[in-house]
Design brief:
heterodimer; A: alpha/beta; Rossmann fold; five-stranded parallel sheet; B: alpha+beta; six-stranded antiparallel sheet; 6 strands; 38% helix
């Protein structure tokens, strides 16, 4: 399954590192955003062009629009209600994980994580995306 | 018998040691060794980054001094030379991310032990006035293959 991924992190090294690791895992269609406002603009633009993102890797703590605000905004917008969103947060913020999942995050990662942990998380989410698409197609044909 | 400050310092140095070694091993696949040696004074070629943990009547500062050689070595493990062209910005962001993760681990420990501190976004201080005036509660040095080093100071002030 071809997957379009958007990495959202205000930290330059983390953006580059995640994008490089995803490329190495053979996910070649990876874009980067520096905060929630930038990410929202890229989501809207790609949707308008008929080439929407399938998965967003989203840092929690960012200036401009933080991860939670971005997540809530997406889930309140029909265009992005089904985009997979993986929230990245620090281990100390357990309450953030609960808030993120209650607000519609597909899954989460706690920092720091290694490339194998990222790979396994992406594999699970891509599998979930595949099932969600198959369900949607079945409903359309029913 | 150790006083409360000594006990706190010992616990905090344990958390810092574990968090720094785990963070660097996980992100960069590099092993670092910790010691409680006094580290060198920052030179113009080092990266200094701080994290602040604040509550009403207490403020903790976590100050990291990164040897440029260590940051270069860490980033060289995950990026190709062509990806490191904008080196200062990416080196600084690597330093800030390490401070962010270690600071949040420390916050989690201190929150459990009665300090309801919140962590602010890590920052690069001005060269002048970068260290708080008082002595650090904890001072540690980390090294990779005994050459590239990183100093970590932890300050705790109560009103």
């Amino acid at each position: 399954m071809s997957v379009r991924i958007l990495v959202v992190d205000d930290n330059l090294m983390m953006r580059q590192m995640l994008a490089s690791q995803l490329n190495a895992m053979d996910y070649k269609d990876v874009s980067k955003a520096v905060h929630g406002v930038d990410a929202m603009s890229q989501l809207i633009d790609s949707h308008a062009k008929g080439n929407p993102f399938d998965l967003v890797l989203l840092d929690w703590s960012m200036p401009e629009m933080n991860g939670l605000d971005f997540l809530v905004k997406c889930r309140n917008d029909n265009r992005f209600a089904k985009t997979a969103i993986v929230m990245i947060t620090s281990e100390s913020e357990k309450q953030n994980i609960v808030k993120a999942l209650e607000s519609g995050a597909t899954s989460y990662l706690t920092k720091p994580f290694s490339p194998p942990v990222l790979q396994e998380k992406i594999r699970q989410v891509v599998e979930w995306l595949g099932s969600a698409k198959a369900d949607a197609q079945a409903k359309t044909h029913a | 018998m150790p006083n409360k400050n000594q006990e706190l310092a010992r616990s905090i140095s344990g958390i810092i040691r574990q968090s720094v070694t785990n963070t660097i091993a996980t992100l960069f696949n590099v092993s670092v060794n910790a010691s409680e040696d006094v580290h060198k004074v920052p030179s113009g070629d080092d990266f200094v980054c701080c994290g602040e943990l604040v509550q009403d009547d207490a403020r903790a500062t976590l100050m990291f001094l990164f040897d440029r050689e260590l940051i270069e070595r860490l980033l060289g493990c995950v990026f190709s030379a062509s990806e490191l062209i904008d080196d200062t910005a990416i080196y600084e962001s690597a330093a800030l991310e390490i401070v962010n993760i270690v600071g949040n681990n420390l916050k989690m420990y201190l929150n459990v032990h009665g300090y309801k501190l919140n962590m602010s976004i890590p920052y690069v201080p001005d060269r002048e006035g970068q260290a708080p005036a008082e002595e650090p509660l904890v001072q540690m040095t980390f090294s990779a293959k005994n050459s590239a080093v990183m100093g970590v100071d932890f300050y705790l002030r109560r009103a």
